[in-house]
Amino acid sequence: MLFENTIVGPIHSRRLGQSLGVNLLPLRHKHCSYDCVYCECGWNSESEHAAMQFAQPDEIAQLLEQRLQQLSAEGAHIDSFTFAGNGEPTMYPHFAEVAAEVVRLRNRYYPEAVTTLLTNATQLVRPEIFAAVQQLDNPVLKLDAGTERMCHLINRGNELGCTWQQLIDNLTRFGSKGIIQTLLFEGQHAGERISNIEEIEFAAYVKLVKNIRPRYVMLYSLDRATPEKALRKLSVEKLQHYADKLQSEGIETKVYG
Ligand code: SF4
Question: Mutation test of ligand 1: which of 82, 88, 152 has the most ligand atoms closer than 8 Å to its C-beta?
Fold first, then answer.
């Protein structure tokens, strides 16, 4: 499912409450440094021939302000201003500038709300992105695997991203400022078995998270249609089982079923 608007919602999110989405990426096209087997936006290849046209930061700020004026006049509630949408938000060419504008408008219209970024963390390798993401209240950073091999099978990174070691180094530098998000599942893709819950894999993942020392971990499973169909969703009970393993290592963990 691709977003057809820049400002989306507010919609109720299982993780964020009433969430007003800010999609910085081209409408109806996906742009990402990963191509996850479970991506609800579909495969990258479905968008590759589309010309990438990005809105300017002032256009986005104007659309957001108009929507906020409308929502505050209606007395609508917002818990989170959430950067999410058709791909990886930090790949928007003017991310730092627009992030500062969103913080400014949040302060003006909904000072009680938080700013949230759902990111695959590959662009933290760029100093200006690392600094901009640190200014947000809730940087939610993806880590789906304990090993480079499983990350490659699940997330299918491309040349727009970073190496496995850079990813782990940047997540560790972020430390307790960041929240780690992990989608647990099992399945198959292109003849390969994929699982981030096998004993060795999950043990490697726990070891990494212990080193990163995030604020907390969000565990969830598949929720919407996936481009690879041979994937299996985990029950809430199963998610809780893995959350308990993290908790027993002193890592605060929340489950979203
Ligand atoms: S990082 Fe997010 S947007 Fe990018 S491919 Fe994975 S799920 Fe899709």
Answer: 88
Give residue 172's identity as a one-letter amino acid code. T
Question: Where in the chain are the domains?
Answer: 7-256
Confidence (pTM)? 0.94
pLDDT number for residue 48: 57
Pocket test for ligand 1, best of 25, 34, 46, 92 (most atoms within 8 A of CB): 34
CATH number of 7-256: 3.20.20.70
Q: How confident is the model at residue 51 (pLDDT cuts 50, 70, 90)?
A: low
> How far are the Cα atoms of 31, 100, 158, 160 from residue 122, in angstroms, in the given order?
13, 20, 10, 8
Spatial distance between the Cα atoms of 65 and 69, rounded to a whole number of angstroms: 6
Q: What is the pLDDT of residues 118-127, one digit of tens each?
A: 999 999 999 9
Residue 234 gets which letter from DSSP?
Answer: P
pLDDT tens across 75-134, in order?
999 999 999 888 999 999 999 999 999 999 999 999 999 999 999 999 999 999 999 999
Classify the phi-psi angles of 165: left when phi > 0, otherwise alpha if psi is within -120 to 50, otherwise beta: alpha
